[in-house]
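Changelog note: in this version the structure field was regenerated for every chain. One regenerated record is shown below for reference.
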Amino acid sequence: MSEQSTPKTYRSIGTSPVRPDGIDKVTGRANYGADRHLPGMLHGKTLRSPHAHARIRSIDVSEAEKLPGVMAVVTGADFPHLQSAMEEAGESQIDVWDLARNVMARDKVLYHGHAVAAVAATSDAIAEAALAKIRVDYEVLTPVMDIEAAMADNAPLLHDEMRTQGLPAAADRASNVATVIKLARGDLAAGFAAADVVIEREFSTPTVHQGYIEPHAVVADCRENGQATLWCCTQGPFVVRTLTSKVLNWDVSRIKVIPSEIGGGFGAKTTVYQEPVAIMLSLKSGRPVKMVMNREEVFRATGPTSASRIRIKLGANRAGKIMAAEAELKYEAGAFKGSPVMPGCMCVFVSYEMQSFSITGYDVVVNKPKVAAYRAPGAPMAAFAMESMIDEMAHKLAIDPIQFRLDNAVREGSQAVYGPKFPAIGFEACLKQAESHPHYRAPLGANQGRGVAAGFWFNVGMQSSATVNVQEDGSAIVITASPDIGGSRASMALMASEELGIPYERINALVGDTETAGYCDVTGGSRTTFATGMAVIQASKDVIRQMRERAAKVWNVEIDQVSWVDGAAVPAAEVAAEKDLKPLSFAELARNAAHTGGPIAGRASLMAQGAGAGFGVHLCDVEVDPETGKVDIIRYTVIQDAGKAIHPAYVEGQLQGGAVQGIGWALNEEYVYNAQGVMENPAFLDYRMPVALDLPMIDAVIVEVPNPSHPYGVRGVGETPIVPPLGAVANAVHDATQVRFCHLPLNPPRVLAGLQAAGA
């Protein structure tokens, strides 16, 4: 259902037509990363470290190279030596020195599964046999597997040269703490002194996986002219091109990236793992090379999200006003620096007004895979801690949890903790929707509880381009380089349809490659419908301008005497009467384009600004089995501001999907490591994700408070829905048991132990 605050009506915007990619996907015609086959193609396999932390004394590949059918073998020695330099990577930045060593280890392996060598052979079986013949001499080192151990004074160091950045004075010795972040405002001591109730707790969340269905896959074809083509499943072909070129020290012009259909990403497919390796194998062998990870490799060697430890101190007066807050966030980066602790720091207090706060963040390396983005990176852990504290404070003050949030909620004009003032936002509207929703007042049974939690994500704009090509039959083709992972082809077509005034069915939205489409940043950060959509709108307006010019030429009038109404060029009333002119439709102008100036194509490229903050509120009902500790979700409602829902069914799907992923994070999901740093559950059989049978129908309420920076009011919706569930579930479990759980996941053993400790 949708809560409308915009009276404006549209012809196409706000409808939910059939998705353009649906038939190919359900019939099996869609081509995913592993579906590409080229003549003479070889099969690439990667040798991975059996140790979480070790020095590489030597690598002997001679026996592997002798094996019949082996066409190429590469190690870190085959890649160029790079200097440390930061590079844009999706929604964040990465040091190319780190990236190169994550792609292929050099002097050290830093996590179990770290790539050490790779082979290309005429079959998978031969490639596997070749891996077994590679001899690696390791000096095994003690692994560091959690934040506190990594930060200890005597901790084994992952990087001897790494010095902590962000300190008042330069660090004088190496550390596993890569960066310290500090945000503060006001007089913290005075704020806490003015508080009547002060609460302080520590929270933790585990390492979790994004849970995409399709493993990483790439086909590389390096030609005799030094040009390479990559076919891969990615959220950003231009980012793949950039990062791969950096690892290889090539010009970007040497690499063409063609994105395939993508079977899920959620932020994890915004970097590179196999792509530079596949190119190097293709270069050495002179043949195309395919590399496809199996599920175990995905778990052991690609980026999950950070584990975290968060301490929060919160003070409020008896009237229910937050007076001060202090947070300390420690996030695991994995083997190389770059956790999402900065957005975690920016998000932890962002939903609430407060004059005094202090936030400190730590980016900490440990012997786990380098983390990657996962929907609103860094925010779910921060929101879990803060929303648990908000819930506890509301109960201590005997204030309704939603009312307490309303009393402290940021609104238009509020200053965010990270600096700027908010324009029009929908947080208050979402809270009021939650407060009035039947779910919030529905009766609960024995051992049942209800939780509420809020969530926020910045949303981003960044660079996008679009082309709209007009066809002679009156249809149009929309081309962007934004991979479709959440319905963007449909939303692009709907916005073009609205602008051009032609039916949605007459528009074909395509995803181009790095040579046929203009530059687009990654599909991530909830930016695509907002930013690439703005490019499509501008390109459509460019088409309309050309159509008006053509009509003016036909009628021999000035262009300002021609308007565009409902898919047709319309002459001004006085001109129409004088010359007896009738409107010219889009189809008529398209059909006659050759006689009025040639093909018509609209183009636009932009750096989108004003993405518009996304807020959501979730309601969760649980039932807790007091004998086993098992938590069942019995009702769940997502309420979120979409600005304007371009395709409401897709928006609803995003809200539901984010909620389900967050519920899994709250209840079951975690990487389990042994003392040697080996992951013990690298498969979906043991890494427990929720399935349909685990959940009720997720109800979705779409609130629409238009984003003033977008022509249709769009706000991104894909990130925010994963932020509240961790807190909503934990608060519901507290309501059911009266036990406050501060450590996730809330699996049966943990909940049962908590109940027994509390005597519940």
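Spot check on this record: DSSP finds 22 helices and 29 strands in the chain. Residues 479 and 510 are 5 Å apart (CA to CA).
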